[in-house]
Amino acid sequence: MITAIVHVQTDGRRIPEVAEALAEVPGVSEVYSVTGDVDLVAMVRVRRHEELADVIAGQVNKVDGVVSTVTNIAFRAYSRHDLSSAFSLGLED
């Protein structure tokens, strides 16, 4: 699975609507409203690199209210959460 972190600048008056529209785009797994230099961060997960262009350039950038995006492609994931859930039997600690 290929993961891209997309920083999204929006029309500031439409952040909730843009976030909801982005969350409906196939390939977008999560959308976060954040503080800082951008309004939203969208997590895009696809099987092949070629699909990134379809999702990000083809759909995310075309959502009404998206002003600009900057995309970072993840090389590796380091997550205590993922490791602990992989070995969990579903029992509480």
Automatic annotation (TrEMBL):
An individual GO BP term: response to amino acid
GO cellular component: cytosol
Domain Transcription regulator AsnC/Lrp ligand binding: from-to ranges: 6-76
Recorded GO MF terms: sequence-specific DNA binding
Pfam family, one: AsnC_trans_reg
InterPro entries membership: Dimeric_a/b-barrel, Tscrpt_reg_AsnC/Lrp_C
Highest taxon in the source lineage: Bacteria
PANTHER family: LEUCINE-RESPONSIVE REGULATORY PROTEIN (PTHR30154), TRANSCRIPTIONAL REGULATOR AZLB (PTHR30154:SF34)
Name of the featured protein: AsnC-like helix-turn-helix protein
Highest classification ranks of the organism: Bacteria, Bacillati, Actinomycetota, Actinomycetes, Kineosporiales
